[in-house]
Design a protein that fits this description.
- Strand 4 (140-149) and strand 5 form a beta hairpin.
- Helix 2 (27-45) runs antiparallel to helix 3.
- By secondary structure, this protein is of the alpha+beta class.
- The protein has five helices and eight strands.
Length: 206
């Protein structure tokens, strides 16, 4: 029995999606490769399908592509990739509005940390070179604030509420002058006056 014609476009879209979202050889890519190989073997051995040389060639190409090491950083030099976004920490002394404007000038924004996995990535890959004897002396701006309503934090660029948090114990203490958010090199968060001078983390969508 001749096998149904492969939906070439569908396979390419699926493979491309996995490659882009998994920039190194990952479990997702390996599983997809195994699944494609298994499906072709099952159909030929169990269902007695006959695959044309063209379809088998395409299938083999996609499987090999999935298993090849991919480019590990698809961001601009100095930026680091995570889940379809690029991140960079800029050293220096900047107040929060200046930091946000500087990110915007790069087509980016002060980072908006939406879950523990993203926070851990920033801790291990963006803040890994930061240290000081007093953690309050080397904090870094992130993109949240409660400027509109004291104690109600939103992400400034997206306007979304801050649902995941990783505050250092005792913070935020909701003092009126502490409207902005920064992050310690330990990955914990802190509330700060927006006029404080420190470095910042930009995030850019791909």
């Amino acid at each position: 029995m001749r096998a149904p014609k492969l939906n070439t476009l569908m396979l390419i879209i699926v493979a491309n999606h996995v490659i882009i979202t998994s920039p190194v050889v990952s479990t997702n890519r390996v599983l997809l490769a195994i699944g494609l190989a298994g499906a072709s073997l099952y159909s030929s051995r169990i269902l007695d399908y006959y695959w044309s040389p063209e379809d088998l060639g395409l299938l083999t190409f996609i499987i090999v592509l999935l298993l090849l090491p991919a480019k590990q950083n698809i961001c601009d030099p100095g930026w680091k990739y995570f889940r379809g976004h690029c991140y960079i920490r800029v050293e220096g002394l900047f107040n929060q509005p200046t930091a946000q404007a500087a990110c915007n000038a790069e087509g980016a924004y002060l980072t908006e940390i939406t879950d523990a996995e993203e926070n851990q990535f920033i801790l291990e890959n963006i803040l890994n070179t930061v240290s000081c004897s007093n953690i309050y002396d080397c904090t870094t701006w992130i993109g949240g604030n409660d400027k509109a309503t004291n104690g109600v934090y939103i992400w400034e660029t997206s306007g979304l509420p801050v649902t995941y948090t990783n505050w250092i114990p005792g913070n935020p203490n909701n003092e009126v002058i502490k409207d902005c958010m920064d992050i310690f090199y330990t990955g914990l968060w802190n509330d700060r006056p927006c006029t404080r001078q420190e470095g910042y983390i930009c995030e850019k969508n791909l």
